[in-house]
Amino acid sequence: MRLIGKNAVVYGAAGSMGGAVARAFAREGAHVYLVGRTQTTLDAMAMEITDLGGRATATRIDVFDQAAVEAHADRVVEQAGRLDISFNAVGMSAVQDVSLIDMKLEDFMTPIMDAARSHFITATAAARRMAAQGSGVIVLLSSSAAGESRHRMGGFNVACAGIEALNRSLAGELGREGVRVVCIRPNFTPETVPGLSEDDQHLQSLIRDTRLGRLPRLAEVAEAAVYAASDGAGAMTGAVLNLTCGALVD
Length: 250
Fold this sequence. Notes:
seven-stranded parallel β-sheet, 7 helices, alpha/beta
């Protein structure tokens, strides 16, 4: 198991993406600290993980509350001895399919502010503890929107580009402290939208943009997160893992 003995905090752990990553971290041996806004869904996720033989602790926290996130990080270190992995899967509100010239300023700014705030709060909370212990991995979540231009994404693509900029900045500041920072950039992942029809026109448009003729699977995103957090990626920092199925070619 690639993460045995590690302590991993997953923010937004009850969502589709966060849940997939939390399960994968636990399967690979990590004690997963599940964080989100709804205790019942977090408890259900924790029970699912423990029923499969993993270790999970659920805590209700609003990631926009910096004091609460800092206090939780302190509790993890006090209880477990260290904080090894941080992953943020918290979503953002975004108005899309509206041209920029017709968009309201507040609709454009909302995803930018939401993403910047949640990622700054969670990543810096982890960075302080990891720098003090001389090790750790912060995994950030972007999307293909960071490098796209054709689709009407409002402020969503700016928000994702900002996450990738934060990835570079944190990696530059923390590398000599023994802390790695890696960003994952998946394309739209259909499994995150239950009941989505394969014939959906928007979905088919996204698929046509890819070189593989499909979109990424949740299991592939989770596996990439495990790899990024593992010692196997020990030489990687400041990097963006491209999971766009070829919609963006590096």
